[in-house]
Amino acid sequence: MDHGDDKGTLMFQGGKKLGDEYYIVSVFDSVEREVLTFSAYELENSETYNISFPYVEFDTLCKQDPELNTDNKEARYQWIVQRLDFVSEGTNGKKLTLAAEPTPEEPDIPSATGKAIPTGRMNYMERQRQKQEMDKLDEKRAKAITEKGEKARKAFLAELQEKKRLEDLKAAARSQRIEEERQERREKEQMARRIAEEKAAKYAANNDQREARIHELEQQRKQREEKKIHDIVEEDRRAKADRETRIENARVAKRNQDFEHKQHEEAEKARLASLNEKREGAIGARMDRSKEKEAEYIRKRQQIIDDLAREKQNRQERKAKYVYEKSAERARLLKEQHDQQAEWDRLEDQRTQAELKRDHDRNMMMVEHIEKLKQERDRKEHELQVRKEASLAQRRDHETKSNEERAAKNRELAERDEKRHRHIADREVQREQRNQEYIDHIRNLKSSEEARARDKHEHLEASRQKAREERISRRQDKIEQQEQRNNINKAREDHISKRQQNRDLKEVDKVRKWKEEEQTKQLELQAKKETKRLAAREAAMKKQQEEEEKRLEWQKLEEKRQQNIASKDSARIEREQQRLGGTAITAN
User: Fold this and answer.
1) What are the φ/ψ torsions at residue 54 (nearest 5 degrees)?
2) d(CA 123, CA 408)
3) Alpha-carbon Rg for the chain in angstroms
4) 94, 426, 439, 504: which has the fewest Cβ within 10 Å?
């Protein structure tokens, strides 16, 4: 439906009836866009349906009819308006289109007003009562047709609202799931940045403390050296040179060690970044597959709904055609009976005693004709019942087949979900193993470094014993801090894995609940359909009973008419006999 406001100048306006609704059709001309817009305004619910034609397409349509190759624009607009019609768009409602032939504005249901009423040999009161009964039957039929159309429209609107509500719920669930995943990714990124900042701050603080301690030790060493210089200058000079050499070697070794540690940290950061990118790629691919499955399911479901709607429309069209044929046949039969009765009444006054035998033959022929009509009607009713039963059986087979296909699809989806969960669990186990191997490797490296440090410090002189003990204690503290950090990182990773596992379980529960709700809705829909079918069947049975009662009443009326005709014939014969007897006596 087009709700655009820039339609152009109003060129034409008129009324039209499509189906059971009345519309005001307006024609707008937009010179800027070179487009003609036909707008149909529905009077019942104030909805507007638009269809647009460019100038070139509009001229092409008008060239198909020689009568429209003139400058009369209103005639062209009226030609388009006469061919406007609606087509269904599934869950989106209906759409205004251009039909190939003019659409009828009134339903082709014959009216019973003005029909000939069989009078037969009835008096005035009986004919008036028969006429009133026929008028009541027509009113009841018109009322039943109106109630049925209103009921069908309400049922269609209710079904349309239910489908719209389901689509809104699905869209809200998908939006909520996407927002939750985005929030989790943002939390992960913030946590990674916070951990990196904490590590950098700790490394900077440790480096500052180490530099301060080294500076303090150098000052102490210089003071001791200056004191010893006064005692032994030569020995102090050799000791100083040796000491400076060892210090320089230690500094070089320390710088090399810090450089290797920094390279190792950068490599670890690159590896973690690569793992995060792979994880995000896998999550995106999984979401794409899920969206494709949802789109495929919605498309198939919409196709089934459209097939059912077309089948229902075809069934209604066949039923309307059958009602029209039966009504036309009934009108023809009533007209023939009325003509025969009128001819009989016109010749009734001219009958004589010699025409009694021909009158009797005509009555017998009428009885045979009525019997043939009754037999023909019974035969057609039987054929209609057979067709209804065959259609009902075919519909049951179709529903059974569709239920089996839906159950197979549900089983396939359940198997895929189970495989996906197993794959996720295997990946979690592999990641835990890699993390444990990395922790063991770090511990082995720390242990080897500690052993090398102990071997190095064992060869130092006895005078450096105190400094060596202090360095060992500081190193031990650093190792403990590193182990604590490793434990914290391990606990954090365990927490993250548990959160991810809980999130997967919640996602599985959501999918399972959604499937259960879908199955429940399918069962409710099937129950509603079954209820509608039972109601339709009861209505058909009720209608059949009413027709049977009408047929019995008609038979009673026919018997009564035959009795009246027979009594009138016998009375007329008696009068003729009395008249003939009186004439014979007068002649004697």
Assistant:
1) -65, 160
2) 72
3) 50
4) 426
Whether the CB-CB separation of 486 and 439 falls below 8 Å is answered with yes
- Structure tokens that stand for 456 in this block: 């190095």
Write out pLDDT tens, residues 163-193: 778 888 888 888 888 888 888 888 888 888 8
Q: Report yes or no: 19 and 65 within 8 Å, Cβ to Cβ.
A: no
- Position 4 scores a pLDDT of 42
- Binning the chain into helix, strand and coil, the percentages to the nearest 5 are 80, 10, 10
Judge residue 390's burial from the number of C-beta atoms within 10 Å of its C-beta, 0-12 exposed, 13-18 middle, 19 or more buried.
Answer: exposed
Q: How many CA atoms lie within 13 A of 162 on its CB side?
A: 11
Distance, CA of 17 to CA of 22 (rounded, Å): 4
Tell me the C-alpha distance between 165 and 122, whole Å. Answer: 62
Phi and psi angles of residue 36, each rounded to the nearest 5 degrees, phi first: -105, 125
CA distance 384 to 379: 9
pTM over 0.85: no
Structure tokens that stand for 387 in this block: 């067709």
Axis-axis angle for helices 233-348, 356-458 (nearest 10) = 180
